[in-house]
Amino acid sequence: MTDISPFEALSDPTRRKLFERLRRGPCSVNELVEAVPVSQPAVSQHLRVLREAHLARVEKQGQQRIYSLDPRGLIELRAYVDSLWDQVLDAFQQAAQRESQESTLNPSTKEPGHD
Predict the structure, then answer these.
(1) Range of 38's domain?
(2) Is residue 18 in a domain?
(3) CATH no. for residue 28?
(4) pLDDT tens digits for 73-107?
(5) Is residue 101 part of a domain?
(6) Please, what is the end-to-end C-alpha distance for the chain in angstroms?
(7) What domain count does the chain have?
(8) What distance lies between CA 106 and its chain's CA centroid?
(9) Is the pTM of this model over 0.85?
């Protein structure tokens, strides 16, 4: 197996479509083949990449292989998005603190509403 991140795996449009189909619930390979305009062997290769990135998992049920989302890759995606949000909130807090300090150090000579 190769070491592929969930982001690398989702960089391909076909894999994103397969991932989106899996978001709606578990399904068979045949259902996944119907979701994208590529051959069954190509879908199998894309599913292999999604499994290696821990975005999909497979379970054999009788003669069928049923694919579903793998929480491990979703946790990694979520952690990354959460870290972005944390950075945004930190930047907002710093900007608000600077604004507050500037207004304390340089009070306006004009009162609001008086021109």
Answers:
(1) 6-70
(2) yes
(3) 1.10.10.10
(4) 999 999 988 888 877 777 888 888 888 888 777 76
(5) no
(6) 70
(7) 1
(8) 44
(9) no
